[in-house]
Amino acid sequence: MKKLALIAFALFMQTAFAQVNRFVYQVTMKPDASNKGDVKTENAYLDISPEKSVFYSENRIKRDSVMKATFQSGGARSFNREQMEGLRSNINYSIEKDKKSQKITFKDRIGRDVYTYEEDRPLNWKILSETTKIGDYKVQKAETEFGGRKWTAWFTTDLPYQDGPYKFGGLPGLIVKAEDDKGDYSFDLMKNYKIDDFPAMNQFGNTIKVKRGDYVKQQKKFLEDPMSFMTQGGGTQIRIGGDGGPRGGGNPPADFRKRMEERVKDEAKKNSNPIELQ
């Protein structure tokens, strides 16, 4: 009986250790530089396992769920555009941190493809002596400069994780709150719970691996000529997966091109104050 109890306990511990811990952050943003009164708020997940963590929008998973249900129930005929519009997100990227290698991988869609790069700038934190309490956690203050912004973070050692939202991490605890000095972006931990595993995310198009500087150039190119990304692809970088070639070749109708360009310009204006300024 004692041996069986030990085996059961070992299996329980293995199952518990294999679970993923989900931390839900409220993200507050002022993405439009010309209208700082337009404040956007949405939730994002930081899912952490012993091997890695992934940060992404809650709406990303909800949209994936809607699209999966749409495909299963008849495709475009059952597509609910209004429902999808209600799940639009200002967090269109995902960020994965590898615990062993300490590599941070950023993924974002440009046009029809997903661009991915490895973050090449280290986070240099200055840990201060100031402490306070946020919610149930005793937290300590830290500061850094990253992406053209000055950031203040509050981390706790009450939780056994050295991680945080977005690309933030590397402190001796979990980041409970982070905000820039202009008040344009903030991340606030709301709650946490366990999930069985990382959710599967839908991926369409090719995955293109680039350097960070090339990703920035491709973003700019997309704003200048979005249709080049929809018809011929945005570049000639290394492609991972997909068929590696353009889909739906040929030139689109002029009215479609015009609508597409107007939509992209409108989206660019609404997102003229990005989280990274440089």
Structural notes for this entry:
Keywords: Signal. Residues 235-251 have a biased composition (Gly residues). Pfam families: Porph_ging. Residues 235-278 are annotated as: Disordered. With 278 residues, the chain is of the alpha+beta class. The protein is 26% helix and 34% strand. A 13-stranded mixed sheet has the order 7-8-9-10-11-1-2-3-4-5-6-12-13. The relative contact order is 0.15.
Entry summary:
Residues 1-18 form the signal peptide. The protein has helices at 2-18, 58-72, 81-85, 212-224, 226-231, 254-270, and strands spanning 20-29, 40-48, 52-57, 94-98, 104-110, 113-118, 126-134, 137-146, 149-156, 174-180, 185-195, 207-209, 238-240. By secondary structure, the chain is an alpha+beta fold.
Give the arrangement of secondary structure elements.
Layout: H1 2-18, E1 20-29, E2 40-48, E3 52-57, H2 58-72, H3 81-85, E4 94-98, E5 104-110, E6 113-118, E7 126-134, E8 137-146, E9 149-156, E10 174-180, E11 185-195, E12 207-209, H4 212-224, H5 226-231, E13 238-240, H6 254-270
Parallel strand pairs: 6-12
Antiparallel strand pairs: 1-2, 1-11, 2-3, 3-4, 4-5, 5-6, 7-8, 8-9, 9-10, 10-11, 12-13
Features:
13-stranded mixed beta sheet, 34% strand, alpha+beta, 13 strands, single chain
Terminal CA distance: 63 Å
Helix content: 25-40%
Shape: globular
Number of helices: 6
The helix/strand series, from N terminus to C terminus, equals HEEEHHEEEEEEEEEHHEH
- Could you give a short account of the major beta sheet? 13 strands, mixed
Q: Which percent range describes the beta-strand content?
A: 25-35%
Strand line-up in the sheet with most strands: 7-8-9-10-11-1-2-3-4-5-6-12-13
Rg calc: 21 Å
Number of strands: 13
Organism: Chryseobacterium endophyticum
Region (Disordered): 235-278
Biased composition (Basic and acidic residues): 255-270
InterPro entries: GLPGLI
